[in-house]
Amino acid sequence: MSKVFMSYSHKDEELRDELEIHLSMLKRKGLISTWHDRKILPGDDFKNEIDENIEDADIILLLISPYFLDSDYCFDIELERALERHDNGEARVIPIILEHCHWQIAEFSKLQALPEDGRPVTDYPNQHKAFTQIAKGIRQAIQKSGGKPSGSSPSQSDIQQEDTSAAQRKDPQRSSNLRVRKSFSDKEKDDFLRNAFDYIYKFFKNSLEELEERSSFIDSNIERINPQTFTVKIYKEEKLVNKCKIWRGGDLGSSQAIKYSNSIGNRNSFNMMYTVEDDGYTQYLKSSGLSSTTFFDFDEKEDLSEKGASEQMWAMLIEPLQR
Predict the structure, then answer these.
(1) Cβ–Cβ contacts within 10 Å for residue 315, how many?
(2) In this predicted structure, what is the pLDDT of residue 155?
(3) Is the distance from CB of 99 to CB of 65 less than 8 angstroms?
(4) Residue 160 shares a structural domain with residue 194
């Protein structure tokens, strides 16, 4: 059995919990056990418990987000020791990309990350798909190392026995391939668009509040013009540096779309448009942009969650402050 240590920021606790749920089958098979700092008991020495468990771990998962990169303990202590053990062949370190952040210049960027292509979990319209990729990747890593470096994996006969007993306990004789395609109604598409727009508004509002809190020389204004439109202005040292308008539906022949414009006054032009699409199973957003936004290198083939679309629009708004 391989021991898995999770290094993460407490702000990402919900995503860590979801990951652990998706690792449940590997636990049931006796392939892994997991440990994170929420398993420390009252009265235990916090640092010693973490040190002991990271030293015993066969696999160390780095749950990467802006909060992880901002955490001195995660980055300077847990990460440093994890990479030492990885380089010495004592453990395998796997970065798990939870959120958009500039992790590509970090020391661990040399390691193969999960999900595929380092796409953040929160970018997936269906996050279960991302966590399933991660669970499969971890299983492949265990199989490649034979269930080691420390401990031993269960024998094939043990696994088969467990498969049989589990099937007798829980599973009738049926296929697991039960997904069926459906047609999404106009109401479902409209509901998805409205919920996505409300998410984007809250995303911008919270991001602006955090931006002002971190940088005292930044001011901003977000104004909800009506239920379908809001505008944003960002000031640096009381000087306007960028603005945008975001609205949904109602013009240019596309009622099922969210549009982003860096011009507040002109309603008939936009820089990016996000339409509601589906694959017969899940609804998501697709972006299409004008030439003025091509330098952002957005992938128009990518299926976007509400958060993924929000991150793209936020990148366009904040770009002048990051030059």
Answers:
(1) 14
(2) 41
(3) yes
(4) no
